[in-house]
Design goal:
mainly alpha, 3 helices
């Protein structure tokens, strides 16, 4: 059972912590910026993504030059066999 369905059954609203400042936020239609507590926290988080302070973990994407070099290397290897 999910948190939201269990909180609806007990009558208590689901509360989450604002990802930016950790202020409790009621998860409901009255919380316009949920999961953030305010527009300020929402914009601070958006800015962190925009300037790449926040990132999703993983390998760096290859740029076009790296891809061209990889293709050329693979073609050379195939020609040598």
């Amino acid at each position: 059972m999910s948190d939201s369905s269990s909180s609806q059954q007990t009558g208590t609203p689901l509360t989450v912590a604002c990802p930016q400042c950790r202020t409790p936020v009621v998860w409901g239609p009255e919380s316009t910026f949920r999961p953030f507590c305010s527009k300020r926290c929402h914009l601070l988080d958006l800015g962190a993504w925009a300037d790449e302070s926040h990132r999703i973990a993983g390998e760096m994407a290859m740029d076009e030059t790296s891809i061209d070099e990889m293709v050329a290397r693979m073609e050379r290897d195939l020609n040598q066999q």
